[in-house]
Amino acid sequence: MAKPNNPQPAKSRAQTRPSAGKGGASQSKTGRRDVFKAWLFHHQISAVESLIRLLTSPVQSIMTWFVIAIALVLPSALYVGLENAKQFGGSVENTGQMSVFINERARSVDVEALRKRLLTKPGVSAVTLVSSEQALEEFQLRSGFGDILESLDSNPLPDVLLVQPSLSAANSSDLNTLKGLIEGETIVASVNVDLRWLERLKRIMEFAQRMVLALALLLVLGVVLVIGNTIRLAIESRRDEIVVVKLVGGTNAFVRRPFLYTGIWYGLGGGVIAALALTLGIAWLQGPISALSELYQGNFELRGLDWNASMIMILGAAFIGLLGAWLALGRHLGQIEPK
Q1: Which domain holds residue 260?
Q2: Which one of 204, 302, 325, 337 has the largest count of C-beta atoms within 10 Å of its C-beta?
């Protein structure tokens, strides 16, 4: 009787069958680096294409840029004027002096000692003595009553110390403190310093600052509305293109990107034109203002925006353009959906 054949051990199906991955389609994964490169590439393409679209319609783009520039120049010019007014007010304030009238019975030695003591007090940069004889001669020359003054038996004018406050003591509180210290001297008859005009000047400057800020906010709102309306028209003109992009799987972020760059280009163009217009305006006014300052024996120089301030204005305009585009997209882009 023949022996039955010993069957070989059965192999598992997993061992006998080929692996699912061999000979079949393999599944690949996209890395984060590839996703980032694609995202960056689309940003570059969106920025370039949006700029080309603006340049292909130059008349409309230039008109929008000039509207934005005018809205930016107005508050910027007021700001420059306010800063120059502060410069002029500061120079006038710093050249103001305190007139210290000396008692008629004070000796010249005591007056000189007081002058030296005042130089050591905080907040004093210079002290000049004007004797009664010098004051009388100057008054005779400027008043035209020289003959009448010569007929007087005695000199009615006292010695005067002209005290120049330092830059650190330019505000009214420091001047009040310095005035109280000087009035405490025994040979001082009175101290004359007008502080009311300083307070008035400061209040006017504060009011002007708030007015400039309020006007700037209103004009910035106007720029946002202008850019938002421009982006809305661009969205409507490309409605069919947006629908097709969404049909093939394009996200709202993908569709939104070119319009955001359009808003940035509008803001940048308006900011550059505004900076150039402001610089040319300052250069145009510089000559007459310098000539007027020389007539009053001054050295006032009109100052415009420096490089940092100009860059801040241009970048701020770009941000305003981005904000206007974002608001318009948030309101109108969601209404365009494939049916």
Answers
A1: 42-91+199-335
A2: 325
Do residues 307 and 236 both lie within one domain?
yes
Better-scored residue on pLDDT, 176 or 100: 100
Q: Is the C-alpha dihedral spanning 274, 280, 283, 284 positive or negative?
A: negative
Whole-angstrom distance, CA of residue 86 vs CA of residue 110: 39
Shared-domain flag, residues 248 and 331: yes
Residue that is written with structure tokens 């004093």 in the block? 124
Euclidean distance between CA atoms 304 and 76, whole angstroms: 10
Q: Do 208 and 281 have their domain in common? A: yes
| Cα–Cα distance for residue pair 260/42, rounded to 1 Å | 13
Task: Decide if 32 is inside a domain.
Answer: no
- Each residue's pLDDT tens digit, 311-336: 999 999 999 999 999 999 888 887 77
Q: Which of 301, 290, 286 is nearest to 91 (CA)?
A: 301
Q: What tens digit of pLDDT does each residue of 19-71 get?
A: 444 444 444 556 788 878 888 888 899 899 999 989 998 898 999 999 999 99
Mean pLDDT of the chain: 79
> Does 137 reside within a domain?
yes
Which H or E run includes 161? strand 160-165
Quote the number of domains for the chain. 2
Token output for 20: 């699912």
